[in-house]
Every structure is written in C-alpha cells, then in structure tokens.
Amino acid sequence: MDSVALNIVGLVLRILLAAAFIGMGVTHFLPSVQRTMAAMIPPPLRWKGVANPRNLVIFTGVCEIAGGIGLLIPATRVAAALSLIVFLVAVFPANVYAAAHKERFGRAAFPLVPRTIGQVALIGLLTIGGIL
C-alpha cells in the first residue's frame, strides 16, 4: 500500500475512533447513564470527595471527549491515542465488576470475554491510528 493510501486509511480510522470516543464521552453526561456508570465503579475504587463515583464518571467522559478530539489534531494524535489506551486499561475494572454483577446492571453488564476482546481491539486500532 502506498503512503497516500496509508494516510487515507489512518485518517478514516482516526475519524471513526474519534466519533466513537466523543460519542461515548457525551453519554457520561446523561443522568441515567451517570447513575449506572457510577454504580459500576468497584467498591475498592470509591472515594468520597473529588474522586467520588459520579465525579469519576464525568472525568472519564471528559477524557473520552478530549482523547477523541486529540485524535483529529495531527500534533496531538499520538499522545491522544496513548492516553486513550491508558484510559481503556484504567476503566477495565469497572467493566469486570459490571460483568460479574449482571443481575444488578442488566444490559450494561456486557459479558467479560466479548468486552475484553473489544477493549483489546480498540487498543490495537488506537495503536494503528496513532501511527498512521
């Protein structure tokens, strides 16, 4: 594949990833989603004050939006991709907790194996998108 085609593939990939992360980040500001996501934070990671579950949900939403925007800016795309990879690893315990408590979280409790495959795929796509 020539460099022009690689550049186009990279741009399309970054646009798709940016749209996905920005869209997911925006949902963190919907009250019903906030409540569910706050409940998904495992008890050992719950703190009072600034790092309470609701504030963590808002913070992660901001991270996703900022990372998505960063993917679209050439000067920040590598840093944004790396930051979103760290983000995906950091939020994974909440996904594990939700998967283990399907009766409590219903549809939000995505089964662990497909969730893990999805997270790894996103990490791979972010790696490629940050490089191309």
* Alpha-carbon distance between the two ends: 12 Å
What is the C-alpha radius of gyration, as a whole number of Å?
16 Å
Oligomeric state as shown: single chain
**What's the count of strands?**
0
Structural class: mainly alpha
Compute the number of helices. Answer: 6
Average pLDDT reading: 92
Helix content: over 70%
C-alpha geometry? elongated
Counted up, domains total: 1
Order of helices and strands: HHHHHH
The main sheet comes to: none
Topology:
Blueprint: H1 3-27, H2 31-40, H3 53-71, H4 77-100, H5 102-105, H6 112-131
Helix pairs in contact: 1-3, 1-6, 2-3, 3-4, 4-6
Note the main attributes of this structure:
mainly alpha, 0% strand, 132 residues, 77% helix, elongated
What do these coordinates show?
The protein has 132 residues and is mostly helical. The chain has one domain (3-131). The chain is 77% helix and 0% strand. The protein is built from 6 helices and no strands. The chain has helices at residues 3-27, 31-40, 53-71, 77-100, 102-105, 112-131. Helix 1 packs antiparallel against helix 3 and helix 4 (77-100) packs antiparallel against helix 6 (112-131). The longest helix is centred in the N-terminal third of the chain and has 25 residues, at 3-27. The radius of gyration is 16 Å and the shape is elongated.
